[in-house]
Structures are given as C-alpha cells and as structure tokens.
Amino acid sequence: MEILLGAKKGSYYHDDIWAMKYLPRFKWSNLTEKLAYDSAVRKKKLQQEMTQVKKETNFFLEQVDKNKQISAIKRKREEKQSLKDTPVTAIEDKTDSINSSKAPKQRKLAQSSLRTKPIPSNILSSVFTQ
Question: Which of 7, 58, 105, 117 has the fewest C-beta atoms lying within 10 Å of its C-beta?
C-alpha cells in the first residue's frame, strides 16, 4: 500500500510516498511493549555492569589497604630485626647518650636531697619522751 503524503504542492514533502505493509493482528501496543521490554533489558544490563564494576573497585581498594598494612608490618619487623642485629656497643652508646641527657636532672635531685637541714634535738626529745 502506497500513500502520498498529502502535503501542498510547494511543500518539501509533496512528492514523498509512504510505503506501508498491512500486518494482520498487529496492534500499536505490541510495538510499545517491545520498546519497553528492550529498554528494561538495556537498563538491567547497565545495572549489572555497574554492580560488577563497583565490586571490582571495592576489591581493588581492599587489596590496596591490605598491602599497606602488610608493608607496614614488614617494615616494623625489619626495624626490630635491625635493632636486634646491631652490635651491643652501638646499643650501649645509644643508652649512654640517653642517660647523659637525664643525668643533670638526677644530679640536681640527689644534691637537693643531701641539702636537707638537720632536725633540731628538742623536736626529737618531744617525740621520744621517756
């Protein structure tokens, strides 16, 4: 079935022809249902892809965090191991330098405790009466 577009003679569409084929038992709702179904399938696929990408991203971030934790643990272990492997004299030198920085404070405390005044005898006699 060919139909002329019924436009006026000066119109751009005047000579265009619609070629339509009659489809028995075809309704407009069939066409709209097909379009809606295709749209729903496309949305579902996009949703599935998005969830998959989100899972992969989360997995990657978790692995990065685990790697940071593991590397920190290894670094601490290496530091402890290096402290154990250092010679005893090096450790003593470190402790001497630490103690020498505390020594003036300790000396002041010791000197201040030696500077206590002697207790007068009259106080002692009042405490220890016979």
Answer: 117
